[in-house]
Write a structure and sequence with these properties.
The complex is a heterotrimer of chains A (385), B (90) and C (474). Mean pLDDT of chain A is 93; it is low at 5-9. Chain A folds into 2 domains: 13-52 and 155-224 and 328-384, FAD/NAD(P)-binding domain; 94-147 and 225-325, D-Amino Acid Oxidase, Chain A, domain 2 (2-Layer Sandwich). Chain A contains 9 helices and 19 strands. Chain A is 28% helix and 27% strand. The radius of gyration of chain B is 12 Å and the shape is globular. With 474 residues, chain C is α/β, with parallel strands linked by helices. Chain C folds into 3 domains: 5-119 and 272-344, FAD/NAD(P)-binding domain (3-Layer(bba) Sandwich); 122-269, FAD/NAD(P)-binding domain (3-Layer(bba) Sandwich); 376-436, Arc Repressor Mutant, subunit A. Chain C is 32% helix and 23% strand. The two termini of chain C are 14 Å apart. Mean pLDDT of chain C is 92; it is low at 470-474. Classes of the chains: A alpha/beta (385), B mainly beta (90), C alpha/beta (474). Strand 17 of chain A pairs antiparallel with strand 22 (454-455) of chain C. Chain C: This is NADPH-dependent 2,4-dienoyl-CoA reductase/sulfur reductase-like enzyme. Chain C: Residues 6-320 form the FAD/NAD(P)-binding domain. Chain C: Keywords: Oxidoreductase.
């Protein structure tokens, strides 16, 4: 819980990072009545948020702590979309398809575990796939439909949540870089920045892929590493071409893989503006920004495999982002017992947009000393020792 | 007598080596698509393949740059609306 | 090294690329001259299929083109119609990934000369998205390559010496040019500042300028410094423009508005170098005197990336003669680097210096001033592709925390459409910086890893590897 500051006008919480996770933390904290200041070394949504596809998924998470967080987040995002407009929230549902009988068996096993946790998952027979996606390849073995999956425009979500947080008293300071921490006898007392000191009773590390560096400034170890991904963007297409978030069953196993070399599985979705986003690739190559033509080819080939009609669509651009991942592929959320006053909200890998809302909720609950809507223990930083 | 190509059902003359866009401009046609947001008319702007304002459907393929595609007698040219991909709208 | 590797690949067959290819070819390099266009010459020496002589009167320095063309024909493999979509650095060579007729062809080379050229800088104004409004370069291209005039009664506006040949060329082909509206006052600048800069050392350049001035006079075309086209009017195409007189900061003088009937407008505000390929390779850039992002090169036209040479407008907008001499030096430097004998004539080095000084003086006489922003209304389209308005861009920067062009792009889609911000990039950067209270950064838009649209099916297929012709593969 935030220690009250003696000087009334000082912020109670400083959030480091104006990506979607930092924005959600700021929004929930401000709505909880805390005085919040958000700092970011760049603009709003300048990091991984700006390179994200905006997925809010339960479908890709097998039963376990992350699924619980995701289920909470689906509810939180629904609330956020009601409270704050303008970020293209679309509860479009997700369709996971299987290319083979074996992959379909895997899908069924995953769905069975998810259903026990309350997730809605409906099997789609091969002959029913076209009712969901008219342009899908017609030689697939079947699929699973998840109506709870949703999508937002991530940069807009971050910006709109921050604007609303400002309306509730928060201050947002882009282009302010954290260079150190302020300490008191009890622990952290704020941050040192390129624009002067920002005293605060609590510091929230929502620095995404750079969360490990912020933790190091505070003297604790949080092993967040970058995992590069490319997204291809097509020319604008009519809204009906791809209706849901569509991905292949193989995507789930890729996410949890420890193989450093290029992995790729098809993830395809349209956007409100018309272009279709094509993913995904995963490589552990540090912060190397070089375009990988082999990665792009794999993404393109997979997309055409699922949606042959896309072969004639032009690719207008490609971008890369660096997913922040921890060795155990779970995010780091909550107070750091090793450093009183420090809270983490980072390391969400490819699920940062989806899990942002629940993360903001959990962090704000911790800041105000209230129990959160899910068990936060698996995400606590103590697990890194 | 110069060659012609079919543009929305009528013959547009062109000189050898001329692009579709140049031939249309020479024939007095100033716009051949509408935008997908505000349905505004567009034709050539930059004329050198940079701006993509002059997108047109050539022989059934949408979104070709009229300022770069050479005119030929056997490839019909169609004006287009929005994304140019009405065929994909189901 | 495999036999399918060229010694040198030159990208762009304009003045810089032709000169570089010729120089390296003369030295004995196996050179691929890769170009998007079907005929060599670039934007400057555009000509119809029948040859440049058909439009000889519209061109300057046709002799240089002929000389370069003859050299290139003898020694270089010219590969027209190939659009480079990306360039990669591989273990022992560079890979040029090109698209031709919907198929991908990959060229490999030990070294590169990138000579991608430039296109007109555009600034939005109300009505600029009406059909009948053209870039100055577009009007010129239609004239030189296709002998098509963009209208019967044409207004030319913007800033820069390029407006003169555009107006003169149109007039020579019978167009009624209603006036050249130059937002700066270069004549006044030259009178005031000519003593301090070595403009007078380039008599050929001055003669060229005098020639255009004479053409304008002959056709009775009014030349109006400190004037700008501030709006274009019409429902579905342009039928008139409003011009106004400007002060030094390009603010409109009250009561100076005047309406001119016309059926076409040609506008340009200097040039924007094309930096997709140097940026993809990570070449260091800098901001030049005209506010353009350019590649930082040394005296041998070397970029910060080993074996990547850059020539022409991508290293600083300076015109065709400048481009050709930088290309010549780049080609020779690349040849020497690759182990072929060549040399660096002092005359070329001197000429490059003089032409650079002339270009710098021209840039100083034709700056872009902030006043252009005041003519935009909230609903003036800034990004033509995605139809994003000036108001949306400004609000993203002032209210949503989008303090650079990338975040404004994410928040508004300005620069996210077909042209990928090539047309609106400078304007968006200017509006963003003004609204966010930060400095303009022309480099925010440079990263475009897909340099031209590629069909997804083409990307998905295995590309063809091109081999040099006439190579003994035994």
């Amino acid at each position: 819980m935030v220690r009250l500051m003696t000087v009334d006008r000082l912020p109670e919480v400083v959030v480091i990072g104006a990506g979607v996770v930092g924005a959600a933390c700021a929004w929930y904290a401000a709505r909880a009545g805390l005085r919040v200041t958000v700092v970011d070394r760049g603009p709003v949504a300048g990091g991984t948020t700006g390179a994200g596809e905006g997925n809010i998924l339960v479908s890709d998470k097998p039963a376990g702590p992350e699924l619980e967080l995701a289920r909470l987040s689906v509810r939180c995002w629904r609330d956020l979309a009601d409270a704050v407009e303008g970020f293209e929230y679309d509860p479009k549902g997700g369709l996971v398809v299987a290319g083979s009988a074996a992959a379909l068996d895997g899908l069924r096993a995953t769905a069975s575990g998810q259903r026990e946790r309350g997730v809605t998952a409906t099997e789609v027979r091969p002959d029913e796939l076209h009712e969901h996606e008219p342009h899908l390849a017609d030689d697939l073995a079947g699929g699973m439909y998840y109506p709870e999956d949703a999508q937002v425009q991530p940069a807009a979500a971050a910006a709109r949540l921050l604007r609303d947080a400002r309306a509730h008293g928060a201050a947002v300071r882009p282009n302010v870089e954290v260079t150190g921490v302020l300490r008191s006898r009890d622990g952290l007392a704020g941050v040192r920045t390129s624009a002067g000191d920002v005293p605060a009773g609590a510091v929230v590390n929502a620095a995404g892929t750079w969360g490990g560096e912020i933790a190091a400034l505070a003297g604790v170890d949080v092993p967040v590493l970058p995992r590069r991904g490319f997204v291809l963007v097509t020319e604008p297409l009519p809204p009906g071409v791809v209706r849901h978030k569509v991905y292949a069953a193989e995507y789930v196993s890729d996410v949890a893989s420890d193989d450093a070399s290029l992995q790729s599985s098809p993830v395809i979705e349209s956007t409100a503006a018309g272009p279709v986003l094509l993913g995904s690739s995963r490589e552990r190559v540090g912060f190397n920004r070089t375009l990988s033509v082999p990665a792009l080819r794999r993404i393109a080939a997979h997309a055409v495999r699922l949606f042959p009609v896309l072969a004639g669509a032009d690719v207008l651009r490609a971008y890369r982002g660096f997913r922040p991942y921890c060795p155990d592929h779970l995010p780091v959320i909550g107070p750091d017992a090793r450093c009183p006053g420090l809270y983490h909200a980072c390391g969400h890998e490819g699920a940062g947009v989806g899990l942002a809302a629940a993360t903001g909720h959990v962090v704000a609950r911790a800041l105000t000393g209230h129990p959160p809507g899910t068990d936060p223990t698996p995400f606590l930083p103590e697990r890194f020792g | 007598m110069s060659d012609t190509f079919d543009f929305d059902g009528r013959a547009v003359p062109f000189e050898p080596g001329q692009t579709v866009g140049a031939a249309l401009i020479a024939d007095g046609v100033r716009s051949w698509r509408t935008t997908r947001g505000r349905a505004r008319p567009r034709g050539i702007f930059c004329g050198i393949g940079v701006c993509f304002d002059c997108l047109v459907t050539v022989d059934g393929a949408p979104n070709r740059r009229a300022c770069l595609v050479p005119a030929t007698t056997d490839l019909p040219v169609r004006s287009q609306e929005g994304t140019g991909h009405d065929d994909l709208d189901v | 090294m495999t036999t399918s590797t060229y010694d040198l690949a030159v990208v762009g067959a304009g003045p810089a690329g032709m000169a570089a290819a010729a120089a390296a070819g003369d030295a004995g390099c196996r050179v691929a001259l890769v170009d998007a266009a079907e005929r060599p010459g670039g934007q400057f020496w555009r000509h119809p299929p029948g040859g440049i002589d058909h439009v000889r009167d519209l061109h300057h320095d046709v002799r240089t083109f002929r000389r370069l063309h003859a050299r290139v024909r003898g020694t270089v493999e010219h590969l027209p119609g190939h659009q480079v979509w990306t360039v990669t650095r591989e273990d022992d060579a560079f890979g040029l990934h090109t698209v031709r007729d919907g198929a991908e062809v990959v060229f490999r080379a030990r070294a590169l000369v990138l000579a991608p050229g430039a296109y007109d800088r555009q600034l939005p104004f109300p009505g600029w998205d009406l059909p009948g409004v053209y870039t100055a370069g577009g009007a010129q291209a239609l004239l030189k390559e296709h002998q098509v005039t963009v209208g019967r009664r044409v207004v030319v506006g913007g800033t820069g010496p390029f407006l003169l040949p555009v107006a003169a060329g149109l007039a020579e082909r019978g167009v009624n040019v209603s006036g050249v509206f130059e937002a700066n006052s270069p004549g006044e600048w030259l009178r005031r500042g000519a003593g301090a800069v070595p403009v007078v050392r380039s008599p050929r350049k001055l003669a060229e300028g005098a020639g255009y001035a004479a053409a304008l006079a002959r056709h009775r075309i009014p030349y109006r410094p400190r004037h700008a086209v501030v709006a274009a009017h019409g429902t579905d195409e342009v039928t008139a423009v409003t011009v106004a007189r400007l002060d030094r900061s390009w603010n409109e003088l009250a009561g100076s508005r005047r309406r001119i009937r016309c059926d076409a407008v040609a506008v340009g505000w200097g040039f924007v170098p094309r930096l997709e390929l140097p940026a993809a390779l990570g070449c260091r850039t800098r901001v030049d005197v005209d506010g353009s992002a350019v590649v930082d090169v040394d005296g041998l036209q070397r970029s910060s990336v080993p074996d990547v040479y850059v020539a022409g407008e991508a290293t600083g907008v300076g015109g065709a003669q400048w481009a050709a001499v930088t290309g010549e030096i780049a080609g020779r430097a690349a040849a020497v680097r690759l182990g072929f004998p060549s040399s660096f004539p002092a005359s070329a080095m001197r000429r490059r210096r003089h032409l650079r000084a002339f270009a710098t003086a021209m840039h100083a006489a034709h700056p872009v001033r902030d006043g252009w922003r005041d003519r935009l209304s909230d609903d003036t389209v800034v990004c033509r592709c995605e139809e994003v308005t000036a108001g949306a861009v400004t609000r993203a920067a002032s209210e949503l925390g989008g303090t650079d062009v990338r975040s404004v792009k994410l928040l508004t889609r300005a620069g996210m459409g077909w042209c990928q911000g090539r047309i609106c990039g400078d304007a968006t950067a200017g509006l963003t910086a003004a609204a966010a209270g930060v400095d303009v950064d022309p480099r925010g838009h440079l990263e475009r890893p897909v340099a031209v649209p590629v069909p997804l099916g083409t990307l998905a297929a295995d590309p063809a590897d091109a081999s040099p012709r006439d190579v003994d593969v035994t």
